[in-house]
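FAQ

Q: What does a record look like?
A: Structure on top, sequence underneath. For example:
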């Protein structure tokens, strides 16, 4: 089964029943870049990346190494904000560890194939394995990590990317303060019908302080926030 068919099946079987008006959404997507362009330099911070809106193949992120782990790179603005946030957390007695940042498309492809192979090894069919894996591992071009604007942040007491992160003091601190530095929790609990991704308490996305405050205060997903911009008469 081709990846296009599988993506279509996943989209139709899951996303259609969310809170978003899908026929309107598909129409809105055609105007997404034009509308968000009105935001000027802030456009790249609101880049919407999901299964329905892939990163352009000619996109080149503006990357820089992180101070904590130079082998991990992030968008230069996101990196500066993250390091300020980590310093503030340290002052409050919390050490934040960067588990991952930018991933290129080939890395994302390898990651997806490894996870699919693992699922097939546990007895799933190819289609079942794909459906299972893409709940957390995005197809190439559809992962926020390819923008350089997303970082997986963990606690020293639990450096595994699982839901137990939500119970750590570091994660609780991040939820309380991340918007002050322009970050949002990208995949909140019980919002999978909108984001298309399972709850990930470790995955934080840089959108800029001007947007992060509204998103976190109102409990929005990035999808909802961007769609509100699209549907508004003013940017």
């Amino acid at each position: 089964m081709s990846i296009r068919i599988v993506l279509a099946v996943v989209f139709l079987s899951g996303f259609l029943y969310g809170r978003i008006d899908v026929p309107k959404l598909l129409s809105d997507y055609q105007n997404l870049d034009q509308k968000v362009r009105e935001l000027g330099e802030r456009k790249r911070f609101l880049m919407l990346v999901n299964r329905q809106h892939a990163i352009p193949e000619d996109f080149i992120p503006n990357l820089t190494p992180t101070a904590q782990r130079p082998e991990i790179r992030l968008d230069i603005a996101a990196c500066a904000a993250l390091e300020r946030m980590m310093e503030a957390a340290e002052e409050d007695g919390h050490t934040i560890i960067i588990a991952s940042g930018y991933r290129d498309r080939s890395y994302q492809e390898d990651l997806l194939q490894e996870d699919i192979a693992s699922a097939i090894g546990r007895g799933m069919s190819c289609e079942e394995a794909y459906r299972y894996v893409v709940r957390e591992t995005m197809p190439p071009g559809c992962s926020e990590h390819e923008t350089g604007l997303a970082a997986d942040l963990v606690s020293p007491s639990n450096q595994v990317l699982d839901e137990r992160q939500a119970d750590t003091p570091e994660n609780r601190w991040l939820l309380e303060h991340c918007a002050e530095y322009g970050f949002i929790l990208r995949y909140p609990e019980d919002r999978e019908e909108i984001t298309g991704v399972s709850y990930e308490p470790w995955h934080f996305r840089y959108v800029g302080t001007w947007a992060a405050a509204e998103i976190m205060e109102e409990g929005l997903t990035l999808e909802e926030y961007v769609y509100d911009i699209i549907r508004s008469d003013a940017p």
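Q: Is there anything notable about this one?
A: The chain has one domain: 3-104+141-231.
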